[in-house]
Fold:
Amino acid sequence: MSSIRPWRTIERRKSRQIMVGKVPVGGDAPITVQTMTNTPTSDAGATIDQIRRCEEAGADIIRVSCPDVESTAAFREIARAARVPLVADIHFHYKRALEAADAGAACLRINPGNIGSNDRVAEVVRAAKANGCAIRIGVNAGSLEKDLLEKYGEPCPEALVESALDHIKLLQDHDFHEYKVAVKASDVFLAVAAYMGLAEAVDCPLHLGITEAGGLIGGTVKSSIGIGNLLWAGIGDTLRVSLSAEPEEEVRVGFEILKSLGLRTRGVRVVSCPSCARQGFDVIRTVEALEKRLTHIKTPISLSVLGCVVNGPGEARETDIGLTGGGNGKHMVYLSGVTDHHVESAAMLDHIVSLVEAKAAEIEEAMSDAGHADPAVAAE
Structure:
């Protein structure tokens, strides 16, 4: 069978590339996954602890809100401790943007039209240029300008796109081009239509998101539909899954969306059945336990966990490691798609974890020998 599968090809929209700290966004760079802290930024210790958890989950970029001078005062310590670039989230108060840029922000999240006069926009642009900051324009259906609401009568794709273009012009008028743009809405149809319209109008990187998506389950479904549709159409250079959940969960969901479309390959990709009366072991609890115990694996590995032999062998042929339920408490283990040995139920979890860890170490060593420092990045 040919390895070329045109029905699985996503042709990404051509965008120009900007840098957020040392992380490229746009162009041919991998689509980055972002999240946002929810601790009081003025509490540097708590914020750094949360950033560390997000980094361990794989966050490429992390946003930190800076609503007051106490937050920007703590931002310098936070930025020094962070291992990934930080975006300072600024609303209305242009001086917070100036302070955050000086304190080490790699990017400023602002809407230029909401921070006051043209002179204030010019000051922010000067601070961004002086400190090597990018800017993320964040248009939101819930906070559209009054004149656009009056013009269109309600939030609509055309209104979001016009707002984005107005903000872009303010930056371009000051010869600033290191920006990316989001046009978010909590309504999936509205957000997708707005992003599609904006993608045709500009060449800058686009930051994807369905805002106020909801809790872990509902928000994951909603975000997957919206963000997934856009990514499938080739639109999007960076994303945040907005959940009423811990920020590291946003990161994990973001990567799962990208992995499902073959756009990122970080960590273990689990193929598992929903289980039925034929299962030779408790598939649901086994998968839950494996997902928790394998979160530390960054290397791209595929693992199939199937409760019986109906689909088990077929799925195992397509994965690095496979487990298929058998009778009498003995289950078949597959390595690189080939039947290899049996494992008993009592030892099954520890055994599969050890196999995945060993496979990850093997891949990491091979990548290291080939001169790649990060096997997850090398695979992309």
